Amino acid sequence: MVKRGSIVGAAILASGSLASGAQAMPPSAPVSVAWQNPTVAPASPFATPKVQLGLNQFPGSKGLLSGLPRASTTKLFGAPGYAVRRDYDQPLPNQSNLRYLRAAANVVIANYFVWQQNWIGGREYIFPTRDAWSKALKDGFEWDKDPIQTNFFGHPYNGSFYFTGARAAGLTFWEAVPYTLGGSLSWELFSETERPSMNDIFSTTFGGIILGEVLYRVSSQVLDDSKSGWERLGRELLGAGIAPLRGFDRLYTRHAWRDGPAPIKRRFEIALNTGLERVGTIEFNNEIPATDSEPTVDDKRNALLTAVQVDYGDWLPTHENGTLGPFDAFRFYAAANLSSRNGFQGVQIYGDGLIHGWSSFLTKDTGHDQDNNVLGFSATYDYQGISQVNLSGIGMGPSDTIVFRRSNGQSFRLGLDFQWVPILGTTSADTSDSGRDYNLAVGAAAGAHMQWDLARWGRLGFRTRHYLGAVVSGEDGTEYTQYSRLWYEIDVVPKLLGLGIAPTIVSRYGKYDNGTVFRGNFESTQFYVTLHN
Questions:
Q1: Every domain range in the chain assigned CATH 2.40.128
Q2: Which residue, 297, 284, 331, is CA-closest to 450?
């Protein structure tokens, strides 16, 4: 039941950058490591050409991998010139088992910074005693009463600290998962005087894994150990801002200024949007008993919009067996609007990523013109903080994505997913005596997304999600929520600057055992300028 916030990110931002490295080994222990060679074209989309290099030395003051060919000597914050590239999303080979202890230390560091933040804020619940620990273990878990922003935004973000801290220490995706759960449990059981919260465990763990891997991979696109000077410093600081625990790990392991190979670049499309969002209520009823009366609320307002969106991966196989690994393809969108009436409102965060996928090709084309279908499992983190209603769900389940590609730059992607939702939060006027303005539910979700890249004619996209849940804490009953977002963008300056429009419709329906029905239809439309790569 934590009031953990993003101040931790700012506290660590000044400390440096990201990533993990190999553990020190004796110079006399040569190791052969395979690095991807970017100058050789793969024979197929999943082939990985290798160049074998003998490494005479692991991290030291003269560079990350002194055995690699390079073109210049060490400079301030790194030195360029390595002839090969490295996958920054994967751990370095031949690491010591001490990386598991280092991952645990990063989790402790994350909790320490959060604890310090709460201590500075004067929150008394962060001073547990042995009696409080015993009572917490004896009384067991509860559904807490924290605001929906804390439980569904603050906790997943802090969970990402645990996850990226473990990944930065040199662990794989799956190895980092238990550290995220362990970090959440250690905080809930031993860092507060209040009873541990069941919903916090779900949102911190599952949300932290999804957000953590997204932020880790985005930071990998920023880092470049082959750079030096002010550019290297800027990349390290920006990377630390994206994934603070990775940045802190790079600082105390001194990888922030060691030189090494440049990163392997994947398909990574990022856009920064700014403009106007018009938010309104079309229909809103809260009746006891339910009737079909006219809307009781009709309100519209304008707000300034700022947003970032990321589309990562090309959905082609990344392994020789024709599969894709965790988050080899994902989408991420985050937005906030500023209203003169209510200040910051309308925060939206959405991320979905492939956990594992099996690709099958649909045509005999070669290279990146191949059409393929990816059947697998995906995970979704969704927080829609629209001013009239807040909803958030975290889910995982089977998914299917089909991609058609054309040599003229056009492509069409369509995806479907059906997911189990272990925790769902929706604001409601009927929450019984829970002490919250939202109900907690468990249920399922179905979603679909489409993206049509029309080359010079722009980009058309669509996303819809439907949630159905049974209330487990709040007003007993059933919650149904759906929203659909359509967007279209066209470039004014190719591959740099464009204009966009994105209408969204949200529908809420809650039917409760006491006879109350809560229903509402809400809409918003975004008009924006987009700066993209």
A1: 268-532
A2: 331
